Amino acid sequence: MEKITLNNGVNIPSVGVGVFRVEDAQVAYETVKLALSVGYRHIDTAMIYGNEEAVGKAMKDSGIAREEIFLTTKLWNDDQRSGKVAEAIEASLKRLGTDYVDLYLVHWPVKETYKNVWKKMEEVYKSGKAKAIGVSNYQPHHLDDLLQIAEVIPAVDQIECYPYLSQEAVIAYCKGKGIYPEAWGPLGAGKTDILVNPIITGIATTHGKSAAQVILRWNLQRGVIVIPKSIHEARLVENLSVTDFTLTAKQMEEISKLDKNLRLGSHPDNFNF
Ligand code: NAD
After folding, report:
1. The pTM is what?
2. Known catalytic residues?
């Protein structure tokens, strides 16, 4: 399992499994257990996904030592607005059945509070309840504001990113500041034709790989962590098997050229939740 070292020395596996829209507790439990059994050591959840308890139970029942698993959860917007960050992480830890997470992310840049919330995130970090802290859906202008007051530089910015939304500017900005970019919706969240795009499938054929593997590989090769979601064993295995081939510079460029700024989720400057 390839690992990346974040700006505070913490190591994160470059491929994780995401569990958004896996609300059913039993399905979430089985998915995480399955993912761990096929080799995943990085799980991405959030308070708002409603499955922290199932994730924590699956981690425990897996028999794998806690310190071998990289666990991310996120501070939801309402808790950011209310300023109850200490309470929110405590509640997440309780549901997860652990005394720390590896990464705690501010889920969205809530306009009124995204700057002030960072001081409270730093308190969480100093308490040891999160081994690393970061943000999600932050644009460079949000990070510019945050960095003016930050003592701790965010370790990660988790952003929507797949070939039709390549996010080159945000990624370049993050890299310049030592913030590691992480892609959510890396396969297009089941909402586009990216998995049957002929450029992608053509490249996949030359490597004897699937379209999903090529897309994940593209992000890994440009230094972006990926957290694809699946609840099916074959796909979980497939999405993890992305380190045994290399895309050529030309193939990387062909994929990057597919960018059409096609956002499938909300815009970080304009969301209503
Ligand atoms: P994704 O791009 O990972 O797509 C998941 C869908 O792709 C699956 O439901 C399945 O239909 C399909 N799929 C998965 N593996 C496949 C394969 N090998 N072949 C063919 N199809 C396959 O989308 P996502 O779930 O939205 O994003 C991944 C994770 O990112 C989430 O589970 C969550 O953890 C995180 N996320 C974070 C935010 C945020 O705001 N920070 C937002 C959305 C998602």
Report:
1. 0.98
2. 49
Residue 263: per-residue pLDDT: 97
* Residue pLDDT, tens place only, 178-187: 999 999 999 9
Q: Which alpha helices (DSSP H) does the chain contain, by range?
A: 25-37, 52-61, 77-82, 85-96, 117-127, 140-149, 168-177, 198-207, 211-221, 233-240, 249-256
CB distance 136 to ligand 1 below 6 Å: yes
Candidates 121, 156, 122, 120; CA nearest to 138 is 156
Structure confidence at residue 1 as a pLDDT band (50, 70, 90) = confident
CA of 219 to the centre of ligand 1 (A): 14
> Contact 264/184 with Cβ under 8 angstroms?
no
d(C-alpha 273, C-alpha 266), whole Å? 10
> What fold does the segment set 3-256 form as a domain?
TIM Barrel (3.20.20)
The rounded Å distance from CA 236 to ligand 1 centre is 11
Ligand 1, atom nearest to 234 Cα: 18
Let me know how many helices (H) and strands (E) the chain has, helices first. Answer: 11, 10
Alpha-carbon distance of 40 to 50, in angstroms, equals 21
pLDDT tens by residue, 119-164: 999 999 999 999 999 999 999 999 999 999 999 999 999 999 999 9
Atom in ligand 1 nearest the alpha carbon of residue 44: 34
Backbone angles phi, psi at 180, to 5 degrees: -85, 125
Q: What value does the mean pLDDT take over residues 22-49?
A: 97
Q: Hey, what long-range contacts does 7-10 have (CB within 8 A, 24 or more apart)? A: 7/153, 7/155, 7/178, 7/179, 7/180, 8/132, 8/152, 8/155, 10/102, 10/103, 10/131, 10/132, 10/155
